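tool=predict chain=A
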Amino acid sequence: MRFKQFSVDDARCAMKVGTDGILLGAWVSCEGAGKLLDIGTGSGLIALMASQRCAAGGDRRFHITAIDIDAEAAAQAADNFAASPWAGQLEALPMSLDRFVADGHGGEFDVIVSNPPYYIAGKSIIPAGEQRTAARRDADLTLDDILQASAKLLAPQGRLSLILPTAREADLEAAAASAGLHFIRRCLVRTTERKAPSRLLAEIARRAAEAPATSTLTIGSEEFKKLTGDYYL
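tool=predict ok
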């Protein structure tokens, strides 16, 4: 079913659209999800894509909460949500993850999704001082923060999906193990068939899988077009 009431192209003037966000929004499993949380939502792209997928299933009872510590980002997400067909099912909150957990949402979410900061604070070669750079660091939102919070926020059968550089896979595995969570699905993403994968899509849950489902995706391939095609006109 192709559901194009609202596409990525519709929102290009208001949203920063990156390949990582498109990949995660298209890959995350929304099946059976009633309550979803987007951690570090930015402009709200992934939350909107998840809304499109939930609505395409014919069930309008879902609700997505999107949080971002940056008040400007949360305000932009709120504007984008208001302009979408799912305004009543989306909310954007200018709030840190710690504050959100402290407000009491234990065991509430069927799906948590996050496109987290890429680099370890103090070890990145990217210059400091710019908002875009700050969004790529995890000084204020580490992988441990996300995994520990998710362990509290996920419903018993809930799942967490993230995208990270493949260089941080070991960090993610360690953070998941520390939080008592397990990989159940992963996808290695490469820009061409000749290059090594540069991105990891990971789905993590409380239950352990005997052998996590693993796949490989090449940007621009027919499989990539099939995965992301519903979000482009």
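Confidence is low (pLDDT under 50) at residues 1-6, 11-15, 123-128, 133-137. The CA atoms of residues 121 and 140 lie 9 Å apart.
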